[in-house]
Design goal:
- The complex is a heterodimer of chains A (255) and B (245).
- Chain A has ten helices and ten strands.
- Chain A is α/β, with parallel strands linked by helices.
- Chain A has two domains: 1-79 and 156-221, Rossmann fold (3-Layer(aba) Sandwich); 94-150, no CATH class.
- In chain A, strands 6-7-8-3-9-10 form a six-stranded mixed beta sheet, with helices on both faces. A four-stranded antiparallel beta sheet of chain A has the order 2-1-4-5, covered by helices on one side.
- Chain B is mainly alpha-helical.
- Helices cover 82% and strands 0% of the residues of chain B.
- Chain B has ten helices and no strands.
- Chain B has helices at 2-17, 24-39, 43-63, 74-113, 116-122, 127-138, 142-163, 169-177, 182-208, 214-243.
- Classes of the chains: A alpha/beta (255), B mainly alpha (245).
């Protein structure tokens, strides 16, 4: 579990995060949603330790990140998997080498053990024959799946995904969403997803946090988001006519 | 103020380059890859330029000697001195700032733009050590490139002199051997090692700390070339004053 308490982050005079407190639970897909500029990416980068914050605390299983020494931070980072918005695969490596990279860096496994593990995770993300391809030869959806494989190859406790569906067609986006949810469940990972995609919210949002202007405006799940009367949330989530209709039908069905 | 800040950040990067080293089995692969990219792949252009510039130096020296009292071996002597003292270490380094420097800046800059550096940092890897240190080690072989440039420059002078009819083979070889001061080689290689360090680190600095998108990668490569050249020229001046002055 990740626990965030009263998190504040500024860049110069711009106060981006204004006292966010929340928890991200184990084996759940936790979604952070909000408009552009609401502070989602900054929040995610604070969680990852890429940004220092001025006030508040982030603790992983009770260990406060800022109080850890260098070795403890390194150990914690080895437990983190990250799927970047643009996949961030290493251009100079094949897909198999990309997935093997965390194993080469952080484990003492033999090459054949690493190969076996790479085979296993590539099969898990439905890419059993992609080993020798270069990232530039893979489609956007394939690159996302390779990024997921790289993120989970070292059995992380925490999985962070920054807009995993951006640039994907709706069908592939659903495949990626389902894959993340299955992996979260299967490996008992605490997953945090930064998303704009309302399909993701409805599909896999076991816990949803809505950020607005640096504040946590609302917190709930894919079920409670249908019933909320928070105006900021409804204006954001149900901004399209399709989602307005879906919400109306859901409410009518459940009355 | 910004320049001072950049200088400070540059020296902090140098410090970080030696901190928290990457696992040796991974680093070894990176070093061999960088030797291939930065050293082996530069040999062709260095050989081509050195041979022909050596020829031009010999022809121009020969054409500018009109006084019959000046010995004929001066063509070989002047070519050797020009090539060893300045052309091979400095002129080739400026060319390498364009070739190798822009390669380093654009490759690291592209990694920054595409979040590959963020990916390394999230994994807890010292990205500066991972990216810059192998380039620094690969470029410690740079004196090998400069040795080839020296040899081919003098050979190019010989070819131009003898086959262009500007002097005899014996006169040229006599000039090349005349008044040879071994310390000049040491001076050239000391300069080369300093330039190698600058060639590895300044372009890496501009790539690593760049901000923006694809357009900024191009701008960073240009800025990196300009500043690497400026620093090489300044270092050349100070090293020459220090070692030969």
């Amino acid at each position: 579990m990740i626990e965030v308490k009263d998190l504040h982050k500024s860049f110069g005079d711009a106060h981006i995060l204004k006292g966010i407190s929340t928890t991200f639970e184990k084996s759940k897909t936790n979604l952070i949603i909000g408009q552009s500029g609401s502070g989602k990416t900054v929040f995610l980068k604070c969680l990852l330790g890429l940004f220092e914050y001025e006030k508040g605390s982030i603790s992983y299983e009770g260990k406060i990140f800022n109080e850890l020494n260098t070795n403890e931070k390194r150990d914690l980072r080895a437990d983190i998997g990250m799927v970047f918005q643009g996949s961030a695969l290493f251009d100079s490596m094949t897909i198999a080498e990309n997935v093997m990279f965390p194993l080469r860096m952080f484990t003492k496994q033999s090459f054949s053990e690493m190969e076996d593990r790479v085979d296993l995770v590539l099969k898990r993300v439905n890419l059993p024959d992609a080993h020798k391809k270069m990232p530039s030869e893979a489609s956007g959806g394939m690159q996302k799946r390779v990024a997921i494989a790289r993120a989970i190859v070292n059995n992380p406790k925490y999985l962070f995904c920054d807009e995993p569906n951006s640039g994907l067609d709706p069908k592939t986006a659903i495949v990626i969403d389902n894959l993340i949810q299955e992996i979260t469940d299967e490996y008992q990972i605490t997953t945090v997803i930064n998303s704009h995609d309302m399909n993701s919210v409805m599909e896999i949002g076991e816990k949803i946090i809505f950020l607005k202007n640096g504040y946590k405006e609302w917190e709930g799940s894919k079920d409670t988001i249908f019933k909320t009367d928070n105006e900021a949330v409804t204006n954001f989530v149900y901004s399209s006519n399709l989602f307005k209709k879906v919400r109306r039908m859901y409410i009518e069905e459940n009355q | 103020m910004k320049y001072l800040q950049n200088i400070g950040v540059y020296f902090l990067m140098i410090k970080d380059m030696f901190r928290k080293p990457t696992k040796w089995s991974v680093m070894r692969t990176l070093i061999f890859k960088d030797i291939d990219d930065l050293i082996i792949n530069s040999l062709g252009i260095v050989a081509f330029i050195s041979f022909f510039v050596g020829g031009v130096v010999a022809i121009q020296t020969s054409l500018n000697i009109s006084n019959p009292l000046i010995p004929k071996y001066l063509v070989g002597f002047a070519t050797r001195q020009s090539i060893i003292l300045e052309f091979a270490p400095t002129f080739i380094s400026i060319i390498m700032a364009g070739k190798v420097g822009s390669f380093i800046t654009s490759s690291i800059g592209t990694m920054r733009v595409t979040e590959q550096i963020d990916a390394l940092e999230v994994m807890g890897i010292n990205a500066i050590n991972y990216l810059v240190f192998p380039k620094f080690i690969a470029l410690t072989l740079y004196p090998f490139v400069i040795s080839i440039a020296m040899f081919l420059g003098i050979l190019g002078g010989l070819a131009a002199c003898v086959y262009g009819g500007y002097g005899t083979l014996e006169d040229y070889i006599d000039g090349v051997q005349n008044d040879f001061i071994p310390f000049h080689m040491a001076y050239a290689f000391i300069k080369t090692l300093v330039f190698a360090f600058l060639l590895a680190t300044i372009p890496s600095f501009y790539g690593y700390f760049m901000k923006g998108g694809a357009l900024e990668v191009g701008k960073a490569s240009t800025t990196s070339f300009v500043w690497t050249s400026v620093v090489i020229i300044l270092a050349n001046y100070f090293l020459t004053s220090l070692l030969l002055g």
